[in-house]
Amino acid sequence: MVLTLRFELEAFGRPFNAARIWYGPDARDSVRHTHQDFYELMGVVAGGGEHMLSRGAVPLEPGDVVLVRPTDEHAMSGRATGGLEFVNVSFPIAAWQTFAALSRLDPTGSWDLAPRPPVFRADGGDLADLVGIFEQAVARSQDEPRDLDLLRFWTDLFLLVSPVGEAMDTGKPAWLRAAQAAMHEEENLRAGLPRMLELANVSAGHLAREMRRHDRITPVRFVTDLRLQQAASLLRTTPYSVAEIAERTGFGSQSYFARCFAANYYMSPREFRTLSRFGVHRESQ
């Protein structure tokens, strides 16, 4: 069973809610759930574990910050010695979308369109500062928090962190950065993994190892996620038919595209187009 959580029942009239949570190594996984009307920033402060998503588990370690969106179905699991300790900060959809628009944190809307919750890490790996920001949010949440406290949390956090896989990863090879950037071009995206191997000019095994190291993703998943993200953008912003979008993003057939899209967005491409144009968020089933 999947629970649907509502912000009012989490925050009880406050502008945001923050809580420190711990899952022991032998504890049962948390209840799988989704959010009806709020976003959540989850900061891992100690231990390790897994973020259990509908499409599989993603490892978590100290310093990871995950933006959980209203449509994400997820649960948590402590897998490391000592369990998993993290802080959740939740806030309403309208508040986050206003802040994100004013700050231009994500001008292309890719964070909301991505099939998986975006992950961030502190520039330079400064875990102490990151933990301090989340601990301050918990303290303010317990003492009549104000809207300004939420703005301070967001501002402090996003001055410190960057999305995983982008410029903050100074150790990522130049050839990998270039290949991943080039895959955003429609012609390359349509050609898929073979084209990415051509662009990278390395073996399939080496590409897979480097992407696991720097992005925690396989090349196949990278291409699929990018195709789905581009398809969602085209559905939202263009009049192209579903069949045309399937072809432009390299899915080969409309039926295969529809299956992949529904598996990741919990609705058909046509439903997504309708809801996104009216700004409606639908619960996962």
Topology diagram in text:
Blueprint (H helix, E strand, L loop, with lengths): L2 E3 L1 H5 L5 E7 L9 E3 L2 E10 L1 E5 L2 E5 L4 E4 L5 E5 L5 E9 H11 L6 H4 L5 E4 L4 H15 L5 H14 E3 L10 H9 L3 H6 L1 H8 L3 H12 L3 H19 L4 H7 L5 H12 L3 H10 L7
Parallel strand pairs: 1-3
Antiparallel strand pairs: 2-9, 4-7, 4-9, 5-6, 5-8, 7-10, 10-11
Helix pairs in contact: 4-5, 6-8, 11-12
Descriptors for this entry?
Arc Repressor Mutant, subunit A; 285 residues; 6-stranded antiparallel beta sheet; single chain; Jelly Rolls; 3-stranded antiparallel beta sheet; alpha+beta
Question: How would you sum up this structure, described in words?
Answer:
This is AraC family transcriptional regulator. GO terms for molecular function: DNA-binding transcription factor activity; sequence-specific DNA binding. Residues 177-275 form the HTH araC/xylS-type domain. Keywords: DNA-binding, Transcription, Transcription regulation. It comes from Kribbella albertanoniae. The protein is α+β, with helices and mostly antiparallel strands. It folds into two domains: 3-163, Regulatory protein AraC (Jelly Rolls, Sandwich); 174-278, Homeodomain-like (Arc Repressor Mutant, subunit A, Orthogonal Bundle), CATH 1.10.10. Helix content is 46%, strand content 20%. It is built from 13 helices and eleven strands. The chain has helices spanning 7-11, 93-103, 110-113, 127-141, 147-160, 174-182, 186-191, 193-200, 204-215, 219-237, 242-248, 254-265, 269-278, and strands at residues 3-5, 17-23, 33-35, 38-47, 49-53, 56-60, 65-68, 74-78, 84-92, 119-122, 161-163. A six-stranded antiparallel beta sheet has the order 2-9-4-7-10-11. A three-stranded antiparallel beta sheet has the order 6-5-8, with no helix packed on it. A hairpin with a 2-residue loop joins strand 5 (49-53) and strand 6 (56-60). Helix 6 (174-182) packs antiparallel against helix 8. The longest helix has 19 residues, at 219-237. The protein is globular and about 55 Å long. The protein starts with a strand and ends in a 7-residue tail after the last helix.
